[in-house]
Design goal:
Elements: E1 5-11, H1 18-28, E2 32-35, H2 36-45, H3 49-59, H4 66-83, E3 88-92, H5 98-107, E4 112-120, H6 123-132, E5 134-136, E6 142-143, E7 158-159, H7 166-187, E8 191-195, H8 200-213
Parallel strand pairs: 1-3, 1-4, 2-3, 4-8
Antiparallel strand pairs: 5-6, 5-7
The site of zinc ion has 7 residues, from loops.
Length: 221
């Protein structure tokens, strides 16, 4: 019996903790996490036909095209369907545009449901989080906030990343809001909002409760 597929698109501004939330969802629930960044890298390192196209595009300094990203996601979803893996997919980094959303609807066919979960964080909070974080110059560990003069546990110096400036945060937030508005318009009543303010443990708890509410099964411990 072929169970139908549930696809959950995880959205949130930069610094919302999406990566951590996705990782913990995979630990606690019977879900598959699909990150387009990871998938694109896997195609490249696997030297697949798609991977070679991606590599050429990146070498030319261009952005990977919509159609190429969609093809990679389609390959991943088809694999999940045929491999008998959990039928709930948490999609991270895709779709980003209405065109991609339409492609996703098309290539996943009718036998599936698509929902969007937005981790909501006010812009001022996003800026404060990103501008407050520091990275170790030695081991590259990232700290959410630091005391003056604090050093990494490895002894390294903690500095601000060069692309964590007020200007770039503004640009990243704009990009995010454009994407979020387009997807909310496309998916409308299939969009759930999660309050993303507070410690990551609390934010995760809210997302986990939402997943339980959808009837998604927890992994047996
Ligand atoms: Zn360090």
């Amino acid at each position: 019996m072929l169970e139908s597929l549930l696809i959950i698109i995880l959205l949130g501004p930069p610094g919302a903790g999406k990566g951590t939330v996705a990782q913990r969802l995979v630990e606690d629930f019977e879900v598959q996490h699909m990150s387009t960044g990871d998938m694109l890298r896997a195609e490249v390192s696997g030297r697949t036909e798609l991977g070679k196209q991606i590599e050429d595009t990146v070498k030319e300094g261009k952005l990977v095209e919509d159609t190429l990203v969609s093809a990679v996601v389609k390959t991943g979803i088809d694999k999940i369907r045929t491999d008998g893996l959990p039928k709930v997919i948490v999609l991270d980094g895709y779709p980003r545009t209405e065109d991609q959303a339409r492609s996703l609807s098309e290539f996943t066919g009718r036998d599936r449901k698509i929902l969007v979960v937005v981790i909501d964080v006010p812009d001022e909070e996003v800026s404060a989080r990103i501008l407050g974080r520091r990275i170790c110059t030695v081991c590259k560990k990232v700290y959410g906030s630091v005391e003056p003069g604090q050093r990494c546990t490895c002894g390294g110096e903690l500095i601000q990343r060069s692309d964590d400036t007020e200007e770039t945060v503004k640009v990243r937030l704009n990009t995010y809001h454009t994407q979020q508005a387009a997807l909310s318009q496309y998916y409308r009543e299939r969009v759930g909002q999660i309050n993303g303010v507070g410690p990551i443990n609390e934010v995760y708890k809210r997302v986990a409760d939402y997943f339980l509410g959808l009837g998604i099964k927890k992994r047996r411990q």
